[in-house]
């Protein structure tokens, strides 16, 4: 009598299994080498290891389904988070490269590591782990005004546009990552990916504020290079060739003559624009090339026809945060005019706690309000004139944190300053000033033309423009650098 047993997977008898094995062996001897090993034949398995590594016989092994091998459970892997971490590393090395063209000698490596540890090791775990932190409505505003508190306490300096360095590496990038975390906590959209993006070294260095960042999924590296590299070239040209030499005019800050003060304000406005927009374009390009899409922080602001349009194209990421945190909720409760003043005063305190910023915030709020009234009356030419006045006079208020000197300027002193006749300004500074003035004029005068209409610097991304920019960069790169630092990246 034949003893029968069953395989776990098939349920066939031993005799049937023997006949099947013999048939397979005959077939393999005809079609394959004689030493072919059949893992499904118990007779061809002299011994195997069983549970706890015990040695078992072939007959016992035949009771098991040796075809069904055990595999460890798959561990879920967040490829999106991994890519954001890679972006952080690339941003770190990109910042190291960019610092070679900057005269900022601060230890950015230590500062970057400090900021990353604070964001990912302290703030993010606390904001995520504590339900009270997520539900406490004041948390976003505490994060946003954290930089104001450090300014008030003297830990950080005011952000006037001049070169300032904090001696405390723990507050490096606080203005940017504080606003970014505040924005995401308010919208309840804070994730580990957004936290890693907020701590990206490039964004800590000069912004923009990480209000949104997504992966570019459907574009090859070649296509990304073709699209984004022109932005990098434009950004470097803005920052190093056009903006930096304007630093040779900084001595004019000491002049209290109203005409000289306004002249300096106009020059400093162009310096801030080409410096900040240039660095923002470089960051935009680097992030785009590696596959991370961030907002374009500047969109040809001088193509505007009134101060409202101007602010829509200037430091867009900060405008987004201000609108979300302050304008929208305040407008619902108190109306548009009150919301407008709160927005500008909040923006002033974000830049620093000082008298000149308070005056600047109120001044711009009034100009914004007047523009709304003039537009309702269809006096568009007056809104353009008001915009020019608001930009230049507003920059004069913004740049000077010396209250006594600022008040002297506001009295419209007409005394001719002796410093002008004694000043020795290098030729490269005048070349830079001519290029800056030309670019601003083109943005304004040709705003409705095809290459200017979308306000994405398309007129500078044409082939002929790229060749001219590259040639100018090569010719002027060795000239006196002037002020090669990030105007918004020192705290």
Portion in helices = 55-70%
First-residue to last-residue Cα separation: 90 Å
Output the radius of gyration.
Answer: 33 Å
- Binned strand content: under 5%
DSSP helical segment count: 22
Low-confidence stretches: 1-20, 27-42, 44-53, 63-78
Number of strands: 4
Mean pLDDT comes to 80
Question: How many domains, in number, for the residues?
Answer: 3
Folded structure, characterized:
Mean pLDDT is 80; it is low at 1-20, 27-42, 44-53 and 63-78. Helix content is 61%, strand content 2%. The protein has helices at 14-31, 58-61, 79-99, 108-129, 131-135, 139-144, 146-152, 174-186, 192-198, 201-206, 221-243, 258-290, 307-313, 316-334, 336-351, 355-376, 380-399, 403-410, 418-422, 427-445, 450-453, 463-476; strands at 47-49, 55-57, 214-215, 292-293. It is mainly alpha-helical and 491 residues long. α3 runs parallel beside α9 (192-198). The relative contact order is 0.11. A two-stranded antiparallel sheet has the order 1-2. Strands 3-4 form a two-stranded antiparallel ribbon. The chain folds into three domains: 1-70, no CATH class; 79-215, no CATH class; 227-317 and 327-416 and 424-476, no CATH class. The protein starts with 13 loop residues before the first helix and ends in a 15-residue tail after the last helix.
């Amino acid at each position: 009598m034949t003893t029968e047993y069953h395989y776990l997977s098939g349920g066939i008898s031993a005799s049937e299994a023997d006949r099947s094995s013999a048939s397979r062996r005959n077939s393999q001897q005809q079609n394959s080498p004689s030493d072919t090993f059949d893992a499904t034949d118990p007779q061809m398995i002299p011994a195997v290891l069983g549970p706890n590594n015990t040695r078992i016989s072939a007959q016992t092994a035949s009771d098991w389904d040796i075809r069904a091998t055990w595999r460890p459970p798959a561990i879920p892997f967040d490829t999106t988070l991994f890519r954001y971490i890679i972006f952080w590393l690339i941003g770190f090395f990109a910042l190291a490269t960019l610092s070679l063209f900057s005269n900022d000698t601060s230890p950015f490596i230590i500062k970057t590591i400090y900021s990353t540890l604070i964001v990912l090791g302290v703030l993010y775990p606390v904001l995520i782990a504590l339900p009270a932190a997520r539900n406490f409505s004041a948390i976003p505003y505490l994060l946003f005004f954290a930089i104001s508190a450090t300014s008030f306490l003297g830990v950080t300096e005011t952000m006037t546009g001049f070169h300032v360095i904090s001696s405390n590496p723990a507050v490096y990038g606080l203005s940017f990552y504080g606003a970014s975390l505040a924005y995401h906590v308010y919208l309840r959209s804070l994730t580990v990916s957004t936290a890693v993006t907020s701590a990206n070294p490039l964004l800590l260095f000069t912004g923009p504020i990480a209000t949104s960042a997504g992966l570019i999924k459907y574009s090859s590296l070649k296509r990304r290079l073709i699209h984004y590299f022109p932005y990098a070239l434009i950004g470097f040209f803005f920052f190093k060739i056009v903006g930096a030499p304007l630093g040779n005019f900084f001595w004019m800050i000491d002049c209290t003559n109203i005409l000289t003060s306004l002249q300096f304000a106009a020059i400093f406005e162009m310096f801030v624009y080409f410096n900040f927009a240039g660095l923002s374009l470089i960051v935009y390009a680097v992030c785009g090339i590696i596959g991370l899409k961030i907002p374009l922080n500047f969109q040809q602001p001088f193509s505007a026809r009134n101060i409202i349009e101007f602010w829509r194209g200037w430091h867009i990421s900060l405008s987004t945060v201000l609108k979300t945190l302050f304008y929208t909720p305040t407008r619902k409760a108190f109306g548009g005019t009150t919301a407008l003043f709160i927005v500008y005063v909040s923006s002033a305190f974000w830049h620093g706690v000082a008298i000149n910023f308070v005056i600047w915030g109120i001044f711009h709020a009034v100009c914004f309000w007047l523009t709304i009234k003039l537009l309702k009356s269809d006096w568009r030419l007056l809104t353009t004139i008001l915009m020019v006045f608001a930009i230049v006079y507003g920059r004069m208020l913004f740049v000077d944190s010396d209250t006594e000197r600022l008040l002297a300027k506001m009295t419209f002193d007409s005394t001719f300053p002796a410093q002008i006749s004694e000043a020795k300004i290098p030729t490269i500074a005048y070349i830079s000033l001519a290029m800056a003035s030309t670019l601003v004029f083109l943005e304004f005068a040709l705003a409705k033309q095809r290459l200017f209409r979308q306000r994405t610097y398309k007129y500078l991304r044409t082939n002929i423009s790229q060749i001219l920019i590259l040639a100018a960069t090569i010719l002027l790169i060795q000239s006196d650098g002037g002020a090669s630092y990030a105007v918004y990246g020192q705290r």
